[in-house]
Amino acid sequence: MPVPALTQERRQDMVKHLHKVLEEHRTAVSQYPPRWQRRHQESDEGQKITEDDEKRSLDEIQKLTDDEIKKMEEMSKAKEKEVLEIK
User: Fold this and answer.
1) Residue 16 above 70 pLDDT?
2) Which of 19, 27, 43, 53 could form a disulfide with 49 if both were Cys (CB 3.0 to 4.6 A apart)?
3) Burial class (CB in 10 A: 0-12, 13-18, 19+), 32
4) Dmax over Cα atoms in the chain, in whole Å?
5) Is there a contact between 65 and 26 (Cβ–Cβ < 8 Å)?
């Protein structure tokens, strides 16, 4: 059963949806550092770590978060290019 080629309008709609999904995922991932910090502060009663260790941990989590967001953006750009490419 032959499938007709996508129209340019449909391709643009798919790209808009892709951007919407990317933003949702970016928001979800960017919420990890603040949630980690809140959880750590709540459980801090029995555990004592130095401020330097806490800062180092937060910096590392932020770096991992930024790396994941960058990967998602790169994947999104590649998919956008693929969707917009007329074969």
Assistant:
1) yes
2) 53
3) middle
4) 66
5) no
Helix, strand or coil for residue 31?
coil
Burial of residue 72, with CB atoms counted within 10 A of its CB: 0-12 exposed, 13-18 middle, 19 or more buried: middle
d(CA 66, CA 82): 24
Q: Around 25, how many Cα atoms within 13 Å sit in the side-chain half-sphere?
A: 15
* Cα 22 from Cα 69, distance rounded (Å): 9
Residue type, 54: E
CB-based burial label for 83 (10 Å; 0-12, 13-18, 19+): middle
Q: Note whether 72 and 7 are within 8 A (CB).
A: no
